Each structure stands twice: as C-alpha cells, then as structure tokens.
Amino acid sequence: MKKLFIPFLLLFVFILSACGNDEKSNTKNSSENEKETFTYQSENGPVQVPKNPKRIIALTNGPNVLALKGNLVGIDEWSNANPLFKEKLKGVTVVSEDDLEKIIELEPDLIIAGSEMKNINKLNEIAPTVVYTWGKLDYLTQQKEIGKLLNKEKEAKEWVNDFEKRAKSAGEAIRAKIGEDATVSVIENGTKEFYVFGNNYARGTEILYQAMELNMPQKVKETALKSGIHTISTELLPEFAGDYIILSTTPDGDNSFLETNTWKNIPAVQNNHVFEINTKASTYSDPITLEYLLKFFEDSFLKN
C-alpha cells in the first residue's frame, strides 16, 4: 500500500507545481500585454503608446474615447458639461492643459491633446501625448483614428460603416417626404447675434448635409459652406432660413427673438417646420452625439 501511495503523492505534487507555473506564466503574460506599446503616427510625430491604455486623459476628443469605452480618468470641462455624457463621466476628473500637477496625480498612461494647446511638451513628459487638430479630419475618419489609437480600430470601422448606411437610409426617407428640392438651415442663437452653419460644424450638420444629402439654402451655401460658420443679425434671419430650420438654443439663454415678428413671419416657422435642439448637447460630432441627433432628425422629419 505504501509503495502505491508514494508514486501517487509524487504525481500530485508534480501537477500542483505545473499549475503554479502556469498561473505565474499567465500573470506574467497578462502583465507584459498591459505594458506592450506600438508606434502611433500623431500630428506631433511618432509616439509610443500603450496597446491597451488603462488611464486616459482626454483634453480633446473625449466623447470619441467614451464611444469606444476607453478608460478615462481625466476629461475637459466642455465635454463634462454636455448633458449627453453626464452619466458616462461620473467619477472622471475635470482637467485642463494647465493643470499639470493634477494630471500627474491622475497617473495617465495616455494623453490626448489639441494641437493648439501650449503645454504639449510638458504633457509628453508626464505620459505619451497624441495630438489632433479640430476639424482637420472629417468626423468619421476622426473616430477611426481614435479607434486606431486605442487598439479598437475594428470596432470603430464597424460603427462608421453601420452609421453611414442608417443615415443614408434616413436621408432617402426624409427627402421622399419633404421633397428633393427642400432646403434645411441650421441656425443657432448667440448672445447678440445668430450663427448659420455649413456642412461640418457639428449641431448635426454632418448628418444633414453630408450623410443625408439634404440641401442648404443658397445664401447659407455662399457664406457658410467654406468657413463652416457665418454670423448674422436678427433682421437677416429670413434670408438664411430654409424650408426647414434646425434651431440650436440653450434652455437658459435669451430666446426672446421667438416672439418677434421677424421670426414669426418666416415661412418655416409658420408651417411648423422648426425643430429645436439643445446647443449644449449638439456641439460635438462623436458617435454618441451623432446617434442622438440621427434619432432626433428621424423623429422630427418623419413623425411630424
């Protein structure tokens, strides 16, 4: 009996030892994977970035990171103030490019910054820093670039392809309802003036004019298509109003213009063709915002 017991005991010890080695090996491999880097071609030159960043500070393009479920520990104040991102940003610290001490305390392994920011060299000393220029890339290419940066290019491309199909289909349905020649203006109420927008200035302009291929009024095309934005006075509103108006306002802003005869006499207003969006929730062109606005446009144009 003792002779049989000893070999079994040795076999048991050997199995335990092998399992222990496997666990150590797996832990080591997991740790090495977390530390792996690759070269990302940023606007500020090639940057060695982590393959799987765990602590991202986004001083720009934070919503794009959110859409890909990136691990944010720091975010800019404008993204944080956006009602669409409020729940998703719980526990994320608000920082700016000047909050260097706070950024150090957050121990980032990746920083995303705007090319106009002054402290890029200092940020790069804290963690690998990738730079983007707002508007340099079109809105969908920008998302694919963020996907590439976060090692989630496949997910980003899949979303882009799906979104393009759905937006195009919605555009076809909307044009069939309102007419191929109908025009749409995107107008925003400022402090003392109004803004009209071209086809790449957020507020849903990329969806309406690019993806859906809706028409902008000739006056808007002449003044805002190239620059992206054009400032007008209250008196000029009728000249820039399309058959349909997407009106961007803030709930706590001065919207007294809505009671003026200038506004009330615009045909789109009289025909109930004005669809109002919240400025604070519409100033980005990331997937979260785009999905929100796509649904809003479908509901507004097709269900009214």
UniProtKB/TrEMBL annotation:
Signal peptide: 1-18
Any single GO BP term: iron coordination entity transport
Keyword presence, Lipoprotein: no
Keywords: Signal, Transport
Region (Disordered): 23-47
Subcellular locations according to the entry: Cell membrane
Basic and acidic residues bias spans: 23-37
InterPro entries, per database record: ABC_transptr_periplasmic_BD, Bact_iron-sidero_bind
Predominant location: membrane
Domain called Fe/B12 periplasmic-binding: residue spans: 55-304
Entry keyword Protease: no
Any matching Pfam family: Peripla_BP_2
GO CC, any one term: outer membrane-bounded periplasmic space
Membrane topology: Lipid-anchor
UniProt family annotation: Belongs to the bacterial solute-binding protein 8 family.
Protein name listed in UniProt: ABC transporter substrate-binding protein
Organism: Priestia endophytica
